[in-house]
Design goal:
This protein is an alpha/beta fold. It has 10 helices and 10 strands. A 6-stranded mixed β-sheet has the order 6-7-8-3-9-10, sandwiched between helices. Strands 2-1-4-5 form a 4-stranded antiparallel β-sheet, with helices on one face. The radius of gyration is 21 Å and the shape is globular. The chain binds adenosine-5'-triphosphate and magnesium ion (MG).
């Protein structure tokens, strides 16, 4: 037997095994297997309704899987005896809608969950709030109220709020989809900084240039399954599956999607007319 030390396998921060999720008769996730290594950035892409949000929501138990297992940091979070609050403390989540409290200042938006969920005292919470506002470039907005901020600034506050909790992994669900195009860049820059710092991230996004430049891996989902995954340049630039190609062509040329929608509608119309 060789005693040569081997490179240890990369730590898996997130592992999803045989994940199924149904809402009533609607099976939305049909057996997902996915791993995200420590420090890895995985972008999840796919058409509307393919189950991307449901997948993220199953990882932090906002949805209860119907079948299968999810591990975060080696702990099975789908185990019946798991401490759900402890799991959620390890996972930061950023949504399309920022969900800031409008009646609280930016600082108070950041300190409240730290105090409620982590039991931090006022000084420690304020310190973490200030540190993380600085990370997202919004120190000068500490005393502002959300309504006085742009959408991009509000989303950066929401990211700082999640970071102030000291998460091991960050999940992003279309964090820039609600933003005016000119505000998208600042939010993506913050996400890029987090990626560079080694944060483990799972990002549902339609921003293909971000996926190409920042992701270590791109996962294409359709119909509740992972159709293909791999190197971003390969998946986006030279997809192996027709479904991926079709999705990307619509995404990159929305005008084509309109044409196809009209054609789909016409075909449905024709079929309806032909049927007895
Ligand atoms: N709480 C729920 N109750 C019932 N059905 C749901 C629920 N959440 C999601 N679904 C259904 O699950 C399917 C997948 O939804 P999901 O939101 O995961 O898709 P998605 O890929 O994130 O789509 P989008 O790109 O539009 O955000 C859809 O058919 C949706 O209607
Ligand atoms: Mg979604």
């Amino acid at each position: 037997m060789s005693s040569t030390p081997q490179n240890p396998p990369p730590t898996r921060e997130i592992e999803v095994r045989g994940l199924h999720k149904s809402f009533g008769d609607n099976e939305v996730l049909r057996g997902i297997d996915l791993e995200v290594g420590s420090g890895e950035v995985v972008c999840v892409i796919g058409p509307s309704g393919s189950g991307k949000s449901t997948l993220l929501r199953c990882v932090n138990l906002l949805e209860e899987p119907t079948r299968g297992q999810v591990f975060v940091g080696g702990t099975e979070v789908t185990h019946p005896d798991v401490d759900i609050d402890a799991v959620r403390r390890r996972i930061g989540m950023v949504f399309q809608q920022f969900n800031l409290f409008p009646h609280l200042s930016v600082t108070d938006n950041l300190t409240l969950p730290q105090r409620r969920v982590l039991g931090r005292d006022k000084a420690a919470a304020a310190k973490a709030a200030a540190e993380n506002l600085r990370r997202v470039g919004l120190s000068e907005k500490a005393d502002a109220y959300p309504a006085s901020l742009s959408g991009g600034q509000q989303q950066r506050v929401a990211i700082a709020r999640a970071l102030a909790m000291g998460p091991q992994v960050m999940l992003f669900d279309e964090p820039t989809s609600a933003l005016d195009p000119e505000l998208v860049g600042d939010v993506l820059a913050v996400m890029r900084m987090l990626a560079d710092e080694g944060m483990t991230m799972m990002v549902v996004t339609h921003e293909m240039s971000f996926a190409r430049e920042v992701a270590d891996r791109v996962v294409f989902m359709d119909g509740g399954v992972v159709v293909e995954q791999g190197d971003p340049a390969r998946v986006i630039g030279n997809p192996a599956h027709e479904r991926t190609r079709h999705f990307l062509s619509r995404l990159l040329d929305p005008a084509m999607a309109d044409v196809e929608n009209v054609e789909d509608a016409q075909n449905a119309d024709d079929a309806a007319r032909k049927s007895p």
